[in-house]
UniProtKB/TrEMBL annotation, chains A, B:
Annotated InterPro entries: ATPase_NBD, ROK
Family under the similarity heading: Belongs to the ROK (NagC/XylR) family.
Coiled-coil segments on the chain, per record: none
Transmembrane regions listed in the UniProt entry: none
Taxonomic classification: Bacteria, Bacillati, Actinomycetota, Actinomycetes, Cryptosporangiales
Pfam families named among the record's database cross-references: ROK
SUPFAM superfamilies: Actin-like ATPase domain
Descriptive protein name: ROK family protein
Length: 297, 297
């Protein structure tokens, strides 16, 4: 028994054939090509799935289900991709499209939630807040193997928890959201403002780790904002483990050492969740999509 | 079939006999007398329960279970009151003590969580964030008739979500917690600082409603802080309804009209939960205790 998994990102589409034990037997990547418009992106997803299905069948392993992780707001129950700024689509009945074209039962999920499922599985904890920090910041709270979805399916907007009143302007139009203060994009914008140079967040982290005072100042502000956001989340939902992923987590100890200290300083009588780096990197979404597919068969 | 319900507060103990339809057939109040120490408070709870049990039995209605709501951290599964600043106890095996003395199966809960269960039931919604605002601020997220407890049983500390970095000092030792900025105590402290007078939060609300500029200034700051805290909670957990209770909710439209406007101004693409006043006043905890007791039989 194998399943097909696809994680559609703004830049690349990751896909994998996963066997009955959960092992990846084949994996690939394709450009998303979102500049071609949402219809072309949907066509690419369908083509990739058909090609994987046929390739697997030719190898003697007939896939039994599809798991598909996509960015933005998703109605997992209806199987509809409601909205994504990244891909530019609205109300695409992806599950029906895949099931018709590929002929296999299909699970559709938001990419952060799929990634959270996979990271929670790896973490071994039953209560995990997964927080990918990249261009934006989102979260998925996985309790007992399921993602907490919220009443309108919109839970997990940790990036829009307010941490700095009157602070930096967020893409959502408000000010001081965690995403505006502490995403990888915010690191880059902050550094550009004080140093004048356009460098990547990874480079700012490297410079901060080497003791560059300007980079260290930016990094310190970002870590404090992150600790405020994670501290507020911990107070409200009390996760056992916070798994931090996304591009910013690549900074390793440069991020995790001061972040743990800053969160520890805030914990007082409140629960102090363990903070760990994500284990699956940018493959978390694809692994999660496979988990969702395997749950169908 | 009737049950006994007790809600132990820092000042008074509310108790009720509740029949099979959920109707209160008898209710009473006693002073908590916490100045006598935790052992005396426990003795009062036990005495009240025995007295209610015997009174009910004499009236021909033999109670079948006990529901007990208490302040502070509770291990509901173990039936132990872990910690309460208000009562001054630690690790009291309340369920075992009640079951031994009263001879009935007993459910133990935190008072805010019990209140949340009762308010959620009344609200008719399946996904309610109950937020009592009094001396402190707490929360209980009720989803599908159960309270979200968190990994260590400590979920719902909305009062310690950070809304004003470097702001007012909180009882927890940190600064800018929602509770330090926007509880009834914070309203009173803020007003005293600017006006010099020690008046109640209810009086500040009344003055603000009448257009007193000093009171209106204090009230406006409090409403903005509350909107930031509730907005962050909405972003993270996406409740359908937020039920605001406690003493501050007694301000009625003086609170709810600007609070709804301030939260609406923050919602952008995020879910905008309905905000309603609590329906049960200070009887929510007792009603919730009765619900928990009825679930045992």
């Amino acid at each position: 028994m194998s399943v097909l998994a696809v994680d559609l990102g703004g830049t690349s589409l990751k896909c994998a054939l996963v066997d009955a034990t959960g092992a990846v037997t084949w994996a690939g990547r394709h450009p998303t090509g979102r500049e071609r418009g949402p219809a072309a992106v949907v066509a690419t997803v369908l083509d990739v799935l058909v090609s994987m299905r046929d390739r697997a069948a030719a190898g003697g392993s007939v896939p039994r289900a599809v798991g598909l992780a996509v960015p933005g707001l998703v109605d997992a129950t209806a199987g509809v991709a409601l909205w994504s700024v990244n891909v530019g689509w609205r109300d695409v009945p992806l599950r029906a499209l895949v099931e018709e074209r590929v002929g296999l039962p299909t699970a559709l999920s938001n990419d952060v939630r799929a990634g959270g499922l996979a990271e929670a599985r790896v973490s071994g904890s039953d209560d995990v807040l997964f927080v990918p920090i990249g261009t934006g910041i989102a979260s998925a709270h996985v309790v007992g193997g399921s993602v907490v979805t919220g009443a309108s399916g919109a839970a997990g907007e940790l990036g829009h928890v307010m941490v700095r009143p009157g602070g930096r302007t967020c893409g959502c139009g408000r000010r001081g959201c965690l995403e505006a203060e502490a995403s990888a994009s915010a690191v880059e914008a902050r550094y550009r403002e004080v140093a004048g140079d356009a460098v990547t967040a990874a480079e700012v982290a490297r410079l901060a780790g080497e003791g560059d005072p300007v980079a260290a100042g930016v990094w310190g502000d970002v870590v404090e904002a992150l600790a405020d956001g994670l501290g507020s989340a911990a107070a409200l939902v009390d996760p056992q483990v916070i798994v931090v992923g996304g591009g910013l987590a690549q900074a390793g100890d440069t991020l995790f050492t001061p972040l743990r200290a800053a969160l520890g300083a805030r914990s007082s009588f409140l629960p102090a969740p363990t903070i760990v780096p994500a284990a699956l990197g940018d493959e978390a979404g694809c692994h999660g999509a496979a988990l969702l597919a395997r749950a169908l068969v």
